[in-house]
Design a protein that fits this description.
mainly alpha, 59% helix
Length: 112
């Protein structure tokens, strides 16, 4: 089931009204993953920073570092091309702006 923008905004408003922790935008990803952002450049240097993050999350089990590294290396070019196509797209940027709840911090809750 796909969610609508209004449902997303309603959920955000509910989050704020209920006094949940203020890390709605997940500060972990913003703070801790800044060092592993590829910014479109997927290469061995990026992978050597990102693989330990996967290891910390225990997200690589049962694969070995060597097998994952080999698979990642085979996909660096495709990852870079895809990242560039998506991020450079005006539609993507427009969608991000539309969903940026900071633009409308006091949007009222609408009953669905």
């Amino acid at each position: 089931m796909a969610l609508t923008i209004d449902q997303l905004h309603n959920g955000i408003c509910y989050w704020r009204l209920e006094k949940f922790p203020p890390d709605f935008h997940n500060t972990y990803y913003e703070r801790d993953l800044v060092a592993v952002r590829a910014n479109g450049v997927f290469n061995q240097q990026w992978w050597s920073r990102f693989l330990p993050v996967l290891q910390d999350w225990q997200a690589i089990r049962p694969c070995s570092h060597a097998s994952l590294t080999s698979r990642a290396q085979a996909r660096f070019e495709a990852l870079s091309k895809t990242w560039t196509a998506v991020v450079a797209s005006a539609q993507f940027l427009h969608a991000v702006q539309e969903l940026d709840v900071a633009i409308q911090p006091n949007r009222p809750v609408h009953k669905s």
